[in-house]
């Protein structure tokens, strides 16, 4: 008796074995096919797929063509694969930029080449008072600070939310790898201009003078309308009830574009980051589309724009969902699936999750992956990566969401050498089979996946859609 009970319990926790039809569909996931897709998406002619760029537009068209070829259903309105965000791209006009800081008898000036400005409107000030950035009310004030702690987009957005009139950030040393690209929502209220100032002197030296006065002429920037596109397709579920629930399987298809100057290769091809995730979504979508009986729940295959600029495409999606967020059971997002040369050790036949303890998804997908001889590896500090890719936008909307990664830290990350020839396609195809088995397990499971009840997930559990 006891033994029988144990056997039943054991059966209850193991993923359902794949049917022969499901295994046949997974076996269509092809290294050669992904090599073909990626050699195009990461080719020099696409110029690093920056947001926005013609190269990115071509990539979106290519992804849609692959969804169409596979017979996946368009997920956007009017039978389209494109979810279009209309934005204004802001172009600074550096020619007449002026910035002068006076303190007693001393005076410093900077040229446009020494600064990075993020401003959606011009500003003109003469001998204005500047205050050091501090906690408390800074609304309407001109604030200045040392930039070391304030260099990423999220921190800048938090500063802007405090409604200062102008933010000056000084950084001793070289320029930071922060894209100058600015995209704003048409009609959105203006935000405080931010001026990042590189080189000498640092802010501490400037701030020591009590009588500092600032003069600035920041010319009115140009606003240009751009269309940014998420690409989305549905594999409609087969269960009359559960097909109204969706699993989102995604990857960002943008990268960081090109270096503006210099000799030799200037193209950041972004083959592994994240051409590899993109072609995995395309390939797995095409494989599952051949199933004679679709999984019980529907699967939305998506590729996002603008991840590199702060998860823009994913946030656009969660603000403009194509299927109801409350019926979206999970987001499985892919990053960096093709390189195995992870800094913490080579990763063959294995992948990893960001925020692995945050939900029961890693367990469900891990059990399913075993059927394809793929294992889950644990990256040290994997929780810290949780907020660094598109899954985070879904988590903030309350949806259990993780990013699956083969190699987090690899040579050529955000480098000119991230080329398609360096990807291990055979390994990627094997790992993708393991992932696809996990998608089927999630899509067919009787229960929706859940956040684990731990302090790290409190904010996401509270946000439940
Ligand atoms: Zn990426």
Task: Give a description of the structure.
This protein is an alpha/beta fold. It folds into two domains: 16-86 and 225-462, Aminopeptidase (3-Layer(aba) Sandwich), CATH 3.40.630.10; 93-220, Glucose Oxidase, domain 1. Helices cover 28% and strands 23% of the residues. It is built from twelve helices and 19 strands. The strands form three sheets. Strands 1, 2, 10, 13, 14, 15, 16, 17, 18 and 19 form a ten-stranded mixed beta sheet that branches. A five-stranded mixed beta sheet has the order 5-11-9-8-7. Strands 4-3-12-6 form a four-stranded antiparallel beta sheet, with no helix packed on it. Strand 14 (246-252), helix 7 (271-288) and strand 15 (298-304) form a beta-alpha-beta unit. Helix 3 (31-41) crosses helix 11, helix 4 (54-70) runs parallel beside helix 7 and helix 9 crosses helix 11 (425-444). The radius of gyration is 24 Å and the shape is elongated. The two termini are 43 Å apart. Residues 1-14 have low confidence and may be disordered.
In short:
By secondary structure, this protein is α/β, with parallel strands linked by helices. Helices cover about 30% and strands about 25% of the residues. The chain has helices spanning about 1-15, 20-25, 30-40, 55-70, 155-160, 205, 270-290, 310-320, 360-370, 390-395, 425-445, 460; strands at about 75, 80-90, 100-105, 105-110, 115-120, 125-130, 130, 140-145, 165-170, 185, 195-200, 215-220, 220-235, 245-250, 300-305, 330-335, 350-355, 375, 400-405.
């Amino acid at each position: 008796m006891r033994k029988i009970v144990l056997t039943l319990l054991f059966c209850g926790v193991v993923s359902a074995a794949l049917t022969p039809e499901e295994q046949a569909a997974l076996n269509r996931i092809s290294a050669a096919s992904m090599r073909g897709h990626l050699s195009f998406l990461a080719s020099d002619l696409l110029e690093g797929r920056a947001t926005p760029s013609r190269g990115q537009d071509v990539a979106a068209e290519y992804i849609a063509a692959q969804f169409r070829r596979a017979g996946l259903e368009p997920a956007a309105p009017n039978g389209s694969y494109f979810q279009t965000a209309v934005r204004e791209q802001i172009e600074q006009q550096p020619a007449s930029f002026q910035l002068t800081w006076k303190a007693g008898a001393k005076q410093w000036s900077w040229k446009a080449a020494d600064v990075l400005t993020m401003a959606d409107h011009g500003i003109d000030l003469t001998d204005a008072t500047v205050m050091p950035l501090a906690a408390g009310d800074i609304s309407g004030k001109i604030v200045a600070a040392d930039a070391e702690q304030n260099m990423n987009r999220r921190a800048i957005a938090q500063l802007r939310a405090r409604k200062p009139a102008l933010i000056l950030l000084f950084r001793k040393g070289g320029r930071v790898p922060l894209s100058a690209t600015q995209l704003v929502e048409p009609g959105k209220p203006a935000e405080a201009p931010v001026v990042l100032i590189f080189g000498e002197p640092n802010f501490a030296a400037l701030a020591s003078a009590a009588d500092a006065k600032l003069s600035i002429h920041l010319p009115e920037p140009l606003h240009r309308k751009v269309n940014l596109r998420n690409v989305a397709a549905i594999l409609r579920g087969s269960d009359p009830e559960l097909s109204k629930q969706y699993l989102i399987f995604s990857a960002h298809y943008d990268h960081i574009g090109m270096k503006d100057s210099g000799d030799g290769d200037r193209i950041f091809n972004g083959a592994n980051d994240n051409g590899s995730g993109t072609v995995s979504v395309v390939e797995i979508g095409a494989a599952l589309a051949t199933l004679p009986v679709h999984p019980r729940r529907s699967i939305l295959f998506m590729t996002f724009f603008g991840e590199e600029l702060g998860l823009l495409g994913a946030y656009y999606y969660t603000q403009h969902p194509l299927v109801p967020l409350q019926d979206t059971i999970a987001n499985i997002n892919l990053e960096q699936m093709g390189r195995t040369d992870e800094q913490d050790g080579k990763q063959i036949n294995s992948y990893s999750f960001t925020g692995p303890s945050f939900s029961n998804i890693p367990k469900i997908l891990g059990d399913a992956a075993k059927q394809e001889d793929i294992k889950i590896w644990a990256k040290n500090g994997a929780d810290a990566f949780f907020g660094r890719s598109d899954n985070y936008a879904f988590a903030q909307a309350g949806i259990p969401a993780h990013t699956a990664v083969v190699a987090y830290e690899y040579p050529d990350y955000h480098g000119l050498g991230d080329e398609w020839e360096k990807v291990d396609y055979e390994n990627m195809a094997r790992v993708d089979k393991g992932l696809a088995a996990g998608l089927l397990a999630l899509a067919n499971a009787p229960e929706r996946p859940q956040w684990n009840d731990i302090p790290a997930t409190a904010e996401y559990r509270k946000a439940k859609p």
